[in-house]
């Protein structure tokens, strides 16, 4: 097991990107891979960290940064898990929104199409991301997007990492579907990710998350998610209101009211494209 300083010496331009209780994230320059992100996981036996690495390394998804290396280093005399992965040069979607940017119809279609293709890929492997939100989406060149952080992902068919009796399942308030934060495990599948993508797309068009806007507490956000129906937004160029109809379906309160999978949602989007007028 090499000392962390040896790993550090093999890369250049180190810069701290984020520091938390269980993870430290750097950006750096690798001689072979170019711009990279280096993550150190301080909780060695954290099953969610291991699962995140396995997902990122094993499948080669088109919309997920590539993991180049992982292993262990001696960090301050503690055995520490590290990962070197592709750095996505661009903005996270939250920062982009905070700068006052919004999607027009064309950008919304490009974003949603990539998002649905991403969910198609992960659902084919029985994976549910469960944390799709602006902070976990990177906007790169040519409007390409990447999804980050599989830390609370679920893999169908493997043991759940959340206690069945838990009142709340892992989630981010305002983006998680009702069945997800209510920990209704038998109802959680890729349609939960479709709900989150619908909310994110809606927020990028309108500038507001319909469940978080005006809420004074997390409990109120969750109550809003279960009771409020987002207002149908008029989108310039959506001549037959098909794009908004698709978003409304994705944001359905019950999984049965959403498309049955990402492929069906993608088929709906493709069928609606001839009605769009990009201006």
Number of DSSP E strands: 11
User: What structural class results from the helix and strand content?
Assistant: alpha+beta
SSE succession: EHEEEHEEEHHEEEEHHHHH
Q: Please outline the major beta sheet.
A: 6 strands, mixed
What is the topology, as strand order, of the major beta sheet?
1-5-6-4-3-2
Shape: globular
Low-confidence stretches: none
Number of helices, counting only DSSP H or I runs of 4 residues or more = 9
Mean of all residue-level pLDDT scores: 91
Helix coverage percent: 25-40%
Q: Write down the Rg.
A: 20 Å
Binned strand content: 15-25%
Ends distance:
57 Å
Structure, described:
- With 279 residues, this protein is an alpha+beta fold.
- Helix content is 34%, strand content 20%.
- It is built from 9 helices and 11 strands.
- The strands form 3 sheets. It has a 6-stranded mixed beta sheet. It has a 3-stranded antiparallel beta sheet with strand order 7-9-10. It has a two-stranded antiparallel ribbon with strand order 8-11.
- The longest helix has 19 residues, at 105-123.
- 34% of the residues are buried.
- The model has no long low-confidence stretch (mean pLDDT 91).
């Amino acid at each position: 097991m090499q000392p962390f300083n040896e790993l550090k010496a093999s890369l250049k331009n180190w810069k701290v990107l984020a520091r938390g209780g269980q993870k430290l994230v750097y950006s750096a320059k690798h001689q072979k891979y170019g711009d990279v992100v280096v993550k150190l996981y301080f909780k060695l036996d954290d099953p969610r960290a291991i699962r995140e690495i396995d997902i990122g390394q094993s499948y080669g998804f088109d919309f997920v940064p590539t993991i180049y290396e992982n292993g262990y280093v001696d960090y301050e005399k503690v055995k520490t898990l590290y990962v070197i992965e592709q750095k996505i040069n661009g903005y996270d979607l939250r920062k982009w929104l905070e700068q006052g940017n919004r999607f027009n119809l064309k950008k919304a279609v490009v974003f949603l199409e990539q998002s649905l293709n991403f969910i198609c890929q992960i659902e084919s492997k029985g994976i549910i991301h469960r944390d799709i939100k602006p902070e976990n989406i990177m906007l790169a060149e040519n409007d390409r997007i990447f999804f980050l952080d599989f830390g609370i992902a679920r893999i169908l068919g493997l043991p759940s990492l959340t206690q069945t009796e838990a009142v709340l399942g892992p989630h981010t308030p305002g983006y998680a579907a009702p069945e997800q934060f209510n920990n209704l495990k038998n109802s959680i599948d890729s349609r939960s990710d479709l709900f989150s993508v619908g909310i994110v797309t809606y927020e990028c068009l309108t500038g507001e998350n319909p469940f978080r806007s005006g809420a004074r507490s997390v409990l109120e956000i969750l109550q809003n998610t279960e009771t409020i129906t987002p207002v149908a937004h008029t989108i310039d160029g959506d001549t037959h209101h098909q794009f908004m109809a698709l978003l409304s379906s994705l944001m359905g309160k019950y999984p049965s009211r959403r498309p049955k999978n990402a492929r069906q949602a993608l088929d709906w989007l493709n069928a609606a494209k001839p009605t769009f007028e990009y201006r």
